[in-house]
Amino acid sequence: MYRDQIDKESRRWVEDSIITEEQRQKIIDRYEKKPARSFLLTFAAIFIGLGFLTFIASNWSAIPQLGRMGIIVLSMTLFYIMGHILFEKGSKNLGRSFLLIAMLIFGAGIFLTGQMYHYQAFSAFPFFIWSSASFCLYLVYQEKLFFISTVSIMTIGQIYSGIVFQSFDIWIGILFLFGIGMIAYRCKDDWLSLGFALSFSIQALVLVFSEEFPYYWLIVYFLVLYLTDDLVKGKGRYRIFNMVSVIALIVLNALQVFFLSSDYIFDSIEYSFFFFIVWAVLFVFAVIRSAMSPVNVYWIDLILFVPVFRFEFGDMLSLVLLFLYSLGWLVAGYKQEISRWVNKGTAAFLVTTLMAYFQLAWDFMSRSLFFFIGGVLLFLLSFLLERKRRNLIKGGTVE
After folding, report:
1. CA–CA gap between residue 92 and residue 300 (Å, rounded)
2. What keywords are assigned to this protein (predicted)?
3. Crossing angle, helix 217-227 and helix 240-259, to 10 degrees?
4. Which of 178, 201, 210, 260 is the most buried (most CB within 10 A)?
C-alpha cells in the first residue's frame, strides 16, 4: 500500500478510535515518501524529445541527406547507450528518461526517413514498427513507463488508421492482444490493467466504426472485456476490466436513450443474427460466472449488457436498464450495508434521473421552468440519498 493511501485511510482509523494520532504518525513514517522526481524526469524527457524533433523538422530541408540520417542514428544511439548505462548503474529514473528520448527519436526517425526517401505509407504500419520497438524496450527493462508508452503508441496508431485510412490495423491489434494482453495477464497490476482496458475500449471503437460494423457489436467487445477480468485481477486488487466495461456500457446506454428515439437512426440499424448468437453465448457464460462468484451481486452489472436496439421503444428500455442497474446496487448496498455499493448506485441513479428528466420533460416545458424544477428535484434527491448513505456509514460497513 502506498504512503498516500495509508495517510488517507488512517485518518478514518483515528476518527473511529482504532488508533491514536501518535500511532497513526508512526505507521505513516514506516512508508517512505516517494519523490516526484520520476514524474519530472519523464516530462523532461518528453519535452526534450519534442524539442529535438521540432528543431529537426523545422531545419530538415536545410540539412544534407547524409547529415539527416547521421543525426537520427547518432542521437538515438547516444541516448540508448547513456540510458542503459545510467539504468544499470542504479540511476533508474534518469536512465528511463534517456531511453524514452531514444524511443521518441526512433519513432520520429521512421517518419522523417520515409519523408526523406519519398516513401508514403498507406496504413498504420510505421506505428506498428514504433510500438514493437517500444514493446521490446519494456521486455528488456520491465518498466511501466515503457508499457504505457507502448500502449499509447498503439492507441494513437489505431486512431490514425481509423481516421486517415478508415481501417483497423490488424498488426497493431495482434501485437496488442497477444503482447500487451499477455503482460497484463502475467503482472496482474492495476495500472497495467487500466492501460490495457482503456486502449482496448478505444481500439474497439475504431474497429466498429472504421470497418462499418453496427454499433451494437460494442456490447460484445465490452462483454468480452468484462468476462476476462478474472484473468488479470490480482488478490485484493480492483476489478479494472469490470469497471471500464461497465462505464462504457453506461455511456452506450445513455447514448441510446437520446438517439434510439430517432426514426432515422432506428431504421438505419442493420440487424445481425450472428450478433445475437455470439452475445447469447457470452451472456450465458457471464450469468454462470456471476452465479458461481462468492459475491453473488455482480449479476447487476449484466443488466447493462442486454441489447435493446431491436425494439422501437429502445430509448425507453435503455433508460429502464440504467434505473434497474442503479436501484440494484442501491438495494444490494443497503441490504449488505456496504457503502461503496451505495455510492455507486447513488451516482448512477442521479445521472439516470437527470437523463430521464432531459428526455421526457425537455419538449414539454419552458426552458427556465425545466432547469428550475430539475435543479430542485436533484437537490432533494441528492439530500435524501446522502442522508441515507451517511446513516449507513455510521452504522454499517465502510468499503
Report:
1. 45
2. Membrane, Transmembrane, Transmembrane helix
3. 160
4. 260
pLDDT in tens, 15-71: 777 777 777 777 777 776 655 555 666 677 677 766 766 766 666 666 777 777 888
Q: How many CB atoms lie within 10 A of CB 196?
A: 25
- If one counts every other C-beta atom within 10 angstroms of the C-beta of residue 29, the result is 10
Give CA separation, 233 vs 34, 138, 284, 394, in Å.
Answer: 25, 21, 21, 30
Residue 338, SS3 per DSSP = strand
CA atoms of 185 and 305, how far apart (whole Å): 24
Cα–Cα dist 20/14, whole Å: 6
User: Measured between alpha carbons, how far is 347 from 329 in angstroms, rounded to an integer?
Assistant: 10
Non-local (6+) Cβ contacts of 233 within 8 A are: 188, 193, 239, 240, 241
The DSSP 8-state label assigned to residue 305 in this structure reads G
Distance CA 346, CA 215 (A): 28
Cβ-defined contacts of 84-90 (< 8 Å, 24+): 87/141
For the question of whether the overall pTM of this predicted structure is more than 0.90, the answer is no
Rounding to the nearest 10 degrees, give the CA dihedral for residues 124, 129, 133, 136: 100
Which grid coordinates are listed for 92? 533508474
Question: 86 and 98 in contact (C-beta within 8 Å)?
Answer: yes
The cell numbers describing 91, all together, are 540511476
User: How remote is the C-alpha of 288 from its chain's centroid?
Assistant: 26
**pLDDT, tens digit (0-9, with 9 covering 90-100), for 284-296:** 988 888 888 776 7
Residue with the three cell numbers 527493462: 141
**Cell numbers 447469447 label which residue?**
280
Contact 349, 326 (CB under 8 A): yes
